[in-house]
Amino acid sequence: MNPETAKYNVSLDQADREICDLLAEEIHKHLPEAENKIWHAHPVWFLDGNPVVGYSKLKQGVRLLFWSGESFEEESLEQNGKFKAAEARYTALEQVDKKALKRWLAKAREIQWDYKNIARRKGKLERLK
């Protein structure tokens, strides 16, 4: 795990830290080629410079965000924002479904919208894969 991600996780209360540690471990396990760094103050994983998954502490739990998640066609992921993102939220470690998470991470590798160049394209997203 990236030292900055570990530092982020350690700053959380125990319940949220356990969720984030599990998420980071599973993301690293299933997307080992992804670059992990703190981006906009939260841990995010990138494939070829494109953000694909990250998490953040919210007032009421932890949000796991997939930048292209709307295209995964998964009922358990909720649309987030005006682009193609979707999320899951957790308030307890036992809510994390590792089987679903593994499936979502596989889709994150295969289904990507080009967020890396969104500013250059003036807010227009194009599908990469």
Can you walk me through this structure?
This protein is of the alpha+beta class and 129 residues long. The chain has a single domain, classed as Alpha-Beta Complex (Aspartate Aminotransferase, domain 1), CATH 3.90.1150. 29% of the residues lie in helices and 27% in strands. It is built from 3 helices and 6 strands. A 6-stranded antiparallel sheet has the order 1-2-3-4-6-5. Helix 1 packs antiparallel against helix 2. The longest helix is centred in the first third of the chain and has 17 residues. It is globular. The two termini are 27 Å apart. The model has no long low-confidence stretch (mean pLDDT 91).
Helix and strand arrangement:
Elements: H1 3-10, H2 14-30, E1 35-39, E2 42-47, E3 50-58, E4 61-66, E5 78-80, E6 85-90, H3 98-110
Antiparallel strand pairs: 1-2, 2-3, 3-4, 4-6, 5-6
